[in-house]
Every structure is written in structure tokens, then in C-alpha cells.
């Protein structure tokens, strides 16, 4: 038998293969090994139990008033608050779909420019809409009412509708005190508002400044009642929270609460996948603005995002510094110290992941229909058409993407809100 | 072989001027295409997101269909002037040699116009979208009027749409590669490469052993990093200024706007009174700034300054840069922190 002589290069190759296998094996054991102390701290930071109490809204004096929430609850479900009597807030923010609509972009009287965001847990955010062009929940609630693509109403008609409705009028007076008398049609026409509609606009411009102020105040109050209601819509504990609770108590069956894939996906979420950089904290969002290079859908230019919203926000009469805000100027901390600059070109707000179940399609224009597509997008990190994509290619394999998706699916859960708030209020 | 190489050089030199040629007011500079509208400049790019996703073009577009034209301002003056954008059919017959004068000579552009964006103000970046139904040659005309002098500045860039072929370019590239390989083999390059390989092979085993030792060498460094105590005060580069801070919310919170009391003193421990202090910050590893624009709102005495409006929106390594001006001197202190 002749002895086989290995050439040197083959020997080197063999050593390399052995080293690579050892490394690969260790990778595997790291991925399935116990959580380290710093990983556990990160898991705890994402846990629903770490969620602080609802922050106060100094710009809305009735934010936590029970009657205001009742009034808001009714307004939220009331289709009369629209030009055609068929659109309510709930038309697009449907309780069964975690208060979204299941569409790429909202559809009411017309088609909106962006995807409907969930309002669950929104009260924790300093900014509203994808581009943060509103700085309070009550100011946000006003926009759809007058948007020609949404409710398409005008503020004078809405103010009159609420004040002249017997049930509303009484609740309104309880919450906001005596209402102005809008019965003089010479001073307060049927339809008026500072809107694209030329007739409504002309009627509004013809009104006296004090009268416009009265109407604006009632209009702002409707927003404040709607905000008081939406503050009740809060996320409930999901499977991830149960898993972290079990880990915290060092329960012996903790590891049986998550499958191997879900666990590996969670580790990717807080590690290699870098998801937790923006989707952080108990709501899985930092509510900040980031350019992630999502391609525009057919027929539209890239979304300018936050950069364009800043001027709108500063000019908005319903912002925190405006006449209808209940906050002292110094209390408007987020507004006072907001940043601007090129980093915000194409930047849009990080959405919470706690409502994933009912909120497809995803992204600001609903460009991506499935979680699969979303993960593929972040894994590839394409160039942004405008501004710069803050993400970088992740180099995740198809198995890792599947594991991440398995983890993400553990995040959805029913709301922590009492069921009576999730359906239309009982008629008086 | 030499003759062949010379022929190749000539071919390449024929290619060269074409590659450097400007498309009207759009020129390629390094990786970027720059459009010049008078003295205003912008990074110019075109995308066809429906067909080629995030692929960037700056002149000829491969497909018909939706095309997004982007001008990323290099000259911030553009943010203050309304920009008008027009695309016309190229009837000059001059193709990429078309200049502004040729366009002005066309007179009324309206009948030739396929896309028109009336003057509009945009903050940092200008975008328009046009859906080209068919292939052809076009001219883009960008116009801005100076807000004070009233002078009109215009830029013209010729481009073609539905340009699919690469012409003779692949052939030239193939020829170039073949010629280079042929030249290399003919001059004994392969034989030399074989010879070097044999010499190097002997060292491979030792190298592999060295590589295996590398993690061991790095171990003390890792231990040092893990045990190094975090300093409570940070100094400027010249060591003359020291800063420390106290967060009004402890530990420094994630996603919550809050204030710090910043304490400044000189190297001998005397508090720095009434300095002009500004703060900025960001995540060096992510190359982005803070989520807010914090401001030093008050001097509290004893070298203490109140910094309001700090919010950290990601976990990880941050740094806060404190710039201090005091009695004709200025310095920056970098405070690292980890969330």
C-alpha cells in the first residue's frame, strides 16, 4: 500500500475547513445559548411592563377627563362628521385591524397620500403622522375632518353639528364650559373654513376675526375630545411579553414559551438584524424620523418626509404654541427643541411593531405588502432616491429572515383597552 | 504584440473624450453628476424605480416609463429660489451637443413640451416625475430666477429615453481584456506567477499557526476594555477645560426629552463662569446626529449650565460635543455616553 502524500496547499485547506467548522459551530451555539445579562436588559427594555404611565399632554387640558373621552368616543364613530355623511374616524381606523384600514393608502372620500397609521399607543409619541407634521394628538385629529380626501367637511359645519346636537351639546358644555352661540347665519354661515374649496374659503375670509376664533376654538375642542378618547387605546401584552415575564421570574418553562425560530429571530432583532436601533423601547418604536430608502410607489415622487413637514408644523395655528393650545410655551419641549436639516430629507417616523397583525400593507405608502418584503428591503438596504438611507445591508440569510419573521409575529396582541371603547358607543 | 497594444491605446483614446463629454449643463464629476444652473449647482440623478429600483442614472435612461428626476442641492441658494423644470422633445438634431443657445433659438417651447413643472420652492431636494410613454431624444430645461437681481439662470441637459444598447462599448471592453491577457502571457507573466506561487507555498503553514494565535493576543485588550472604569469628567483636547454632567432623569433615558446640568471648570478646578456654551451630538458609529436640537438655556452659577432638549432615540454609543467660548479662548469637550 503506497502512502498518500498530501501537498502543502491541501493541508492548509484542511486546516481552514476545520477552523471554519469550529467557528460555524460556535456561531450556532451562541445563537441558541442562554441570554446574556446585556441581552436580558435589552429584552426588559422592550417589555410592555417597562412602559411608563401615559405622559401628560399639557397642550390638552381635558386629555384625561372621563367626559372628554366619552365625547371623543362618540365623535370617533360618528359618520355625520363628513361631507357625505358616510365617513367617520373609524372608517379608516378600524378596531378589528388594530385601528388601521388594511389598505396601502387610506380611502375615504378620495385617496390619501399615505398609509393609515394605527392610533394604538399613539399617545406616547411626541409627533403624529408619518412625517410628524402635527405635535399633538388633538391637532392631528383635526386634519382628516377637513381633508377633501378624507371627511371633507368644514369646521363651521362641524362646530354647529356638535353644538346643536342635544346629547353632544350637553357633554360639550360639561367638558369645555358654555359653547358660543352660532345661530346667527349672517355671522356664522352654514359652511366655512380655510380650505381649498373656494366657496368655503371665501365665506371664512368674510367672517370677522373674533368669530373665526370662536369657531376655531370649538373645532380645536373636538380634537381634544377625540384625543382624550384615543389616549385610552393602548397595546396589550403579547407572547413576547409573556416570554420576558417568564424569563424575569426565571420560570423553569420559560424557554418553552418561544419556539427555536422565534427565539433566534428575537436574537437577530436585538443583534445582527439591528431592528432594535429604531424599533426600541416597550412600544417597539423611538417615534423618530429615519430615511430607510423605501422606493416610491408607481406614480409618485419620493416622499420628502419630515424635512417638508417642519415648515407646516411651525405655521400650524393648532401647534403647541398656538392660541388653542393649553400649554405654556416652555411646556412645548419637543416643539421648542426640534431639529431640522438635511438628515430629515425623506425621513419618516418609525411605527410601533406592537400592532403588526392587522396593519399590512406596510411602509408609509403601503409599498410592501408582506413582512417578508419588509425584511428583504431592510436586508438589502437600497440607495435612497433622495437623502440617504440610514440603514446598511444586513447580510441576513433566508433562514435568518424567516426566524425574524417568526419573532415579529409574536408581537401582535389585542388591546389592553376595555371592550366598550372598541365598539360604537351605546345610543343614549 | 506592441503594435496591438498601440492600436488598443488609440481605440481607448477615441472612447475617452466621449466618456468625459458633458451632457449640456450636466457633467460627471467622480461618482456624481452635477448640474449647473448659472452659479447654482446640484447633484443630478434620475431613477426609474418601477423598472430598475434604486439604480441611478445621470444621462440616458434605459427604459421608457416612470422616471424620477432628482436635484440634490449643493448650492443652498437653490432652497430660496423657485425652480422651473421642463422636458421638451429634442428637435435640434444636436443630441448631446445641444447647448442653451440652441434651446433659446427654438423660440416658444410650449408645443415641444412633454412635461412642465411651474416654478416651485423646495427646501433641500427637488424632485419631479414624468412617465415617458415612448423612447426618444429629449432636452431638460431647468430655470431659476435670482430673487434679488431678477436674472434668469438656465440649464439644459440632453438625454435619451429607452436607450437599451451599449453600442460598441462591450466590444471595446472585451478587446481590452483579451489584449491585456494576451500581452501578459506573451511577456512571461504566467510563468512568473507560477514561480512565485511555489515560493510562497512553503510559508503557509506558519501563517496558519500565527492566525490561530491572534485571538489569544487580542484577549488582554478585550479584558482591559471591559474593566476600564468610566471617567466622570471629560477634558478638552488641550486638557485646559473639564466637563461633567448630571442628567435630570437618571439613568439617561431612551426616547424621553430631558435636561442636563453641565458643569464646566478649568484644569485647576475653578468653575468656568458665564461661558458661551453650545451642545451638539450624535452616534459616531451611525453617522447621525441627535433627534433634537438641544440648547443651553441658563447659566446657574458655580460653573453649572442648564442644557434643555436632549433626547436619545437609540441604544448604543453616543457622544455629546460641548463647545465652549470663554475669554477669547474656545474649546470642545466630547462627552461619550452609552445607552
The run of helices and strands of chain B is HEEEHEEEHEEEEHHHEEEEEEEEE
How many beta-strand elements of chain B? Answer: 19
* Amount of helix of chain B: 10-25%
> How confident is the prediction overall: mean pLDDT of chain B?
85
Number of alpha- plus pi-helical segments of chain B: 6
How many helices of chain A in DSSP terms?
A: 15
| Protein structure class of chain A | mainly alpha
What shape does the CA trace of chain A take? elongated
Summarize the structure in words.
The complex is a heterodimer of chains A (428) and B (339). Chain A has 428 residues and is an all-alpha fold. Chain A is built from 15 helices and two strands. Chain A has helices at 8-32, 37-46, 66-77, 89-92, 137-146, 155-164, 166-176, 198-206, 209-230, 239-248, 260-270, 306-315, 333-336, 371-380, 398-408; strands spanning 289-290, 348-349. In chain A, strands 1-2 form a two-stranded antiparallel ribbon. In chain A, α3 (66-77) packs antiparallel against α7, α3 (66-77) crosses α9 and α11 packs across α15. Chain A is elongated. Chain B is α+β, with helices and mostly antiparallel strands and 339 residues long. Chain B is built from six helices and 19 strands. Chain B has helices at 2-20, 49-52, 100-104, 169-186, 189-201, 204-227; strands at 26-29, 32-37, 40-47, 56-57, 65-73, 83-89, 113-120, 125-132, 136-145, 152-161, 234-235, 241-247, 258-266, 276-283, 288-289, 295-301, 304-310, 317-326, 329-338. In chain B, the strands form four sheets. In chain B, strands 1, 2, 3, 4, 5 and 8 form a six-stranded antiparallel sheet that branches. A five-stranded antiparallel sheet of chain B has the order 11-12-13-17-16, with no helix packed on it. The termini of chain B are far apart. The model of chain B is unreliable at 13-21 and 225-231 (pLDDT under 50). The interface between A and B is large, with 50 and 44 residues.
What's the topology here?
The complex is a heterodimer of chains A (428) and B (339).
Chain A lengths: L7 H25 L4 H10 L19 H12 L11 H4 L44 H10 L8 H10 L1 H11 L21 H9 L2 H22 L8 H10 L11 H11 L18 E2 L15 H10 L17 H4 L11 E2 L21 H10 L17 H11 L20
Helix pairs in contact in A: 2-10, 3-7, 3-9, 5-9, 6-9, 11-15, 14-15
Chain B lengths: L1 H19 L5 E4 L2 E6 L2 E8 L1 H4 L3 E2 L7 E9 L9 E7 L10 H5 L8 E8 L4 E8 L3 E10 L6 E10 L7 H18 L2 H13 L2 H24 L6 E2 L5 E7 L10 E9 L9 E8 L4 E2 L5 E7 L2 E7 L6 E10 L2 E10 L1
Antiparallel strand pairs in B: 1-2, 2-3, 3-4, 3-5, 5-8, 6-7, 6-9, 9-10, 11-12, 12-13, 13-17, 14-15, 14-18, 16-17, 18-19
Helix pairs in contact in B: 1-4
Amino acid at each position: 500500500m503506497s502512502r498518500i502524500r498530501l501537498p502543502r496547499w491541501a493541508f492548509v485547506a484542511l486546516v481552514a475547513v476545520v477552523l471554519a467548522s469550529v467557528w460555524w459551530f460556535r456561531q450556532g451555539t451562541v445563537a441558541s445559548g442562554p441570554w446574556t445579562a446585556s441581552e436580558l436588559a435589552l429584552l426588559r427594555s422592550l417589555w410592555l411592563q417597562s412602559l411608563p404611565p401615559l405622559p401628560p399632554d399639557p397642550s390638552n387640558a381635558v386629555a384625561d377627563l372621563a367626559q372628554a373621552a366619552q365625547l371623543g368616543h362618540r365623535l370617533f364613530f360618528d359618520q355625520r362628521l363628513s361631507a357625505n355623511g358616510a365617513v367617520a374616524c373609524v372608517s379608516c381606523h378600524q378596531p378589528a385591524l388594530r385601528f388601521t384600514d388594511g389598505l396601502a393608502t387610506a380611502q375615504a372620500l378620495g385617496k390619501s397620500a399615505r398609509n393609515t397609521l394605527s392610533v394604538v399607543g399613539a399617545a406616547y409619541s411626541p409627533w403624529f403622522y408619518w412625517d410628524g407634521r402635527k405635535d399633538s394628538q388633538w391637532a392631528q385629529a383635526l386634519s382628516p375632518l377637513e381633508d377633501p380626501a378624507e371627511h371633507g367637511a368644514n369646521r363651521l359645519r362641524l362646530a354647529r353639528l356638535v353644538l346643536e346636537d342635544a346629547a353632544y351639546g350637553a357633554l360639550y358644555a360639561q367638558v369645555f364650559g358654555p359653547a358660543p352661540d352660532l345661530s346667527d347665519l349672517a355671522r356664522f354661515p352654514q359652511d366655512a373654513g380655510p380650505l381649498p374649496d373656494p366657496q368655503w374659503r371665501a365665506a371664512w375670509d368674510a367672517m370677522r376675526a373674533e368669530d373665526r376664533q370662536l369657531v376655531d376654538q370649538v373645532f380645536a375642542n373636538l380634537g381634544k375630545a377625540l384625543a382624550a378618547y384615543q389616549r385610552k387605546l393602548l397595546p396589550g401584552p403579547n407572547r413576547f411579553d409573556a416570554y420576558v415575564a417568564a424569563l424575569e421570574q426565571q420560570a423553569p418553562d420559560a424557554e418553552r414559551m418561544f419556539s427555536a425560530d422565534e427565539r433566534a429571530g428575537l436574537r437577530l432583532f436585538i443583534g445582527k438584524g439591528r431592528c432594535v436601533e429604531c424599533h426600541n423601547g416597550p412600544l417597539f418604536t423611538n417615534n423618530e424620523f429615519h430615511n430607510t430608502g423605501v422606493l416610491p410607489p408607481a406614480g409618485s415622487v419620493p416622499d420628502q418626509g419630515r424635512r417638508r413637514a417642519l415648515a407646516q408644523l411651525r405655521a400650524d395655528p393648532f401647534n403647541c404654541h398656538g392660541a388653542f393650545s393649553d400649554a405654556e410655551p416652555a411646556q412645548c419641549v419637543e416643539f421648542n427643541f426640534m431639529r431640522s436639516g438635511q438628515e430629515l430629507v425623506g425621513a419618516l417616523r418609525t411605527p410601533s411593531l406592537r400592532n403588526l397583525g392587522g396593519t399590512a400593507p406596510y411602509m408609509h405608502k403601503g409599498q410592501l405588502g408582506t413582512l417578508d418584503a419588509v425584511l428583504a428591503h431592510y436586508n438589502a438596504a437600497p440607495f435612497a432616491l433622495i437623502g440617504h438611507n440610514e440603514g446598511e445591508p444586513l447580510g441576513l440569510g433566508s433562514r435568518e429572515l424567516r426566524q425574524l419573521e417568526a419573532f415579529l409575529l409574536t408581537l401582535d396582541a389585542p388591546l389592553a383597552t376595555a371592550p366598550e371603547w372598541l365598539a360604537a358607543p351605546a345610543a343614549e | 504584440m506592441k503594435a496591438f497594444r498601440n492600436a488598443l491605446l488609440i481605440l481607448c483614446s477615441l472612447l475617452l473624450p466621449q466618456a468625459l463629454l458633458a451632457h449640456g449643463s450636466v457633467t460627471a464629476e467622480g461618482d456624481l453628476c452635477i448640474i449647473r444652473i448659472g452659479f447654482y449647482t446640484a447633484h443630478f440623478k434620475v431613477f426609474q424605480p418601477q423598472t430598475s429600483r434604486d439604480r441611478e442614472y445621470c444621462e440616458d435612461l434605459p427604459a421608457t416609463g416612470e422616471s424620477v428626476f432628482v436635484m440634490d442641492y449643493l448650492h443652498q441658494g437653490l432652497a430660496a429660489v423657485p425652480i422651473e423644470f421642463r422636458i421638451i422633445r429634442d428637435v435640434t438634431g444636436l443630441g448631446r451637443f445641444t447647448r442653451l443657445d440652441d434651446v433659446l433659438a427654438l423660440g416658444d417651447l410650449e408645443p415641444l413640451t412633454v412635461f412642465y413643472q411651474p416654478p416651485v420652492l423646495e427646501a433641500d431636494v427637488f424632485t419631479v416625475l414624468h412617465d415617458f410613454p415612448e423612447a426618444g431624444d429629449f432636452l431638460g430645461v431647468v430655470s431659476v430666477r435670482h430673487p434679488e437681481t431678477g436674472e434668469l439662470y438656465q440649464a439644459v441637459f440632453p438625454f435619451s429615453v429607452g436607450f437599451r444598447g451599449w453600442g460598441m462599448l462591450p466590444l471595446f471592453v472585451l478587446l481590452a481584456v483579451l489584449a491585456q491577457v494576451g500581452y501578459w502571457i506573451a511577456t512571461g507573466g504566467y510563468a512568473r506567477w507560477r514561480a512565485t506561487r511555489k515560493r510562497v507555498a512553503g510559508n503557509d503553514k506558519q501563517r496558519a499557526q500565527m492566525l490561530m494565535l491572534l485571538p489569544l493576543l487580542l484577549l488582554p485588550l478585550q479584558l482591559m476594555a471591559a474593566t476600564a472604569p468610566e471617567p466622570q469628567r471629560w477634558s478638552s483636547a488641550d486638557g485646559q477645560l473639564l466637563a461633567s454632567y448630571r442628567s435630570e432623569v437618571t439613568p439617561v433615558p431612551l426616547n424621553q426629552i430631558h435636561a442636563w446640568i453641565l458643569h464646566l471648570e478649568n484644569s485647576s478646578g475653578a468653575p468656568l463662569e458665564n461661558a458661551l456654551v453650545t451642545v451638539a451630538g450624535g452616534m459616531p458609529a451611525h453617522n447621525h446626529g441627535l433627534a433634537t436640537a438641544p440648547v443651553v438655556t441658563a447659566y446657574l452659577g458655580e460653573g453649572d449650565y442648564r442644557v434643555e432638549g436632549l433626547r436619545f432615540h437609540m441604544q448604543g454609543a453616543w457622544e455629546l460635543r460641548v463647545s465652549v467660548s470663554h475669554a477669547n479662548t474656545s474649546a470642545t469637550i466630547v462627552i461619550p455616553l452609552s445607552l
